[in-house]
Amino acid sequence: MLPMEPRDRQRWRRELEALRDQTVAKPAEKISPNRDDGSTRTDDDAQPLNEMNQVIASRRNRLRQGSLAQINAALAKLGDDPEMYGLCEECEEPIGEKRLSLMPYAEYCVSCQRRHDEQRGAARRSLTDFRS
Question: What is the distance between the alpha carbons of residues 74 and 76, in angstroms, rounded to a whole number?
Fold first, then answer.
C-alpha cells in the first residue's frame, strides 16, 4: 500500500480537530450527591439507583477523558511524525481506511488490536462491538 498523501493527512487532522472540539464541548457528566437537601437521612429505595447513576456518570467521564487523550495523541503524531500517522504502532502496516474513518485516532490495525484485546481478556466481534 502506498504511503499516505499530505492532503490526506490534512483531512485527517481536520477530522481529529473537529472530533476533539466536539468532545471538549460536551460537558462532563454531573455526579449527583446522594442527598442534596442537607439532610443525612437517605431514601433506601432511591439509594441504589442514585449509586448506579453515579457509577455511570463517572465511567462516561473516564471514557470521555480517554477518548480525548487518544485524539490528542493522534494529533501529536500528525505534528511530530506525520509519516507514521495511519500506520499501526505494532506492525507498521497501514491502518485500513474504514477503520480510520470510524476511529481516526486508532493506534493499531484490526489484527494487532485483536491481539491486544485478547491479551487484556477482552474480545471484539466487530469494530463497533466490544465486550470484556
Answer: 5
